[in-house]
Specification:
about 300 residues; alpha/beta; inorganic pyrophosphatase (n-terminal core); Diaminopimelate Epimerase, Chain A, domain 1; 2 domains; globular; manganese; DHHA2_dom_sf; metal-binding
Length: about 300
Amino acid sequence: MPAYVVGHKIPDSDSICSAIALSYLKNAIGEECVPARLGELSPETLFILDKFGFEQPELKLSYAGESLYIVDHSDRVQGPDDIDDATILGIIDHHKLGDITTSTPLECWIRPVGCTNTIIKMMYDFHGVEIPANIAGAMMCAILSDTVIFKSPTCTTADIKCVEALAEIAGIEDPQALGMEMFKVKSAVEGTPIRDLVLRDFKDFDMSGNKVGIGQLEVIDLAIFDEMKDDLHADLAALKEEGGRHSVMLLLTDIMKEGSEILVVSDDDDLTAKAYGKATTEGRVWIDGIMSRKKQVVPPLQDSFAG
């Protein structure tokens, strides 16, 4: 019976490409694994899979009685709802250490890098397994996505070196140009339902017992949201009530200006002032330099709840 490799709910490109890449590696070293997903794929991820000839991983929501590897997260709230009834064989992640626990020893690869696929590249090197060209291309794209084409403060030398190595394997002469293609796909939001946009890259966090949802939309020109910010803000309010959340935030990240406008609906009117030193005006605030939810948004927010 194969083990499954699965990322977080509302999967992004790193989550999906990690599942594919790790499954291939595990099979290559004699451990039968199958990639899976916990939700529908974003246009960017579909672009990557189509470019490198992959089918979508199996949509599988229940893992009771199954064995699985967790990629791109270690927070219970982001994993399968029945994760407590599964056997966790390993965690491969680049975020803060979450609250998933196990009753038996497990394999852990957790590194402070910009992308889970960077860690999986290290795993391929460790095991001496050759990476197929199509998997290398998908891994490279995931790293470019997560590091915002090396602009994110989460980007490390390891991420850049891995992109260079993977691009050579995949036969991609200009990886950054391909990265811009991906972000143009991400920026094509017109005609997309508001709820789909809000949930395109959305994660829930447990912050001192408070459920906080944080979404992010990365585009090459923030002006595309000018006519829809009111609708986005209204949907955040609806999402907050539906999920019993303390707060919901949506980062509208301009990758060219290297900053984010944050839309906020919260039980605490001073939420952003406490966490980031800038108060919202009518539920909005622009913060220069904010590019990373993982490194720049979640930690100070978590600290503000803990304090």
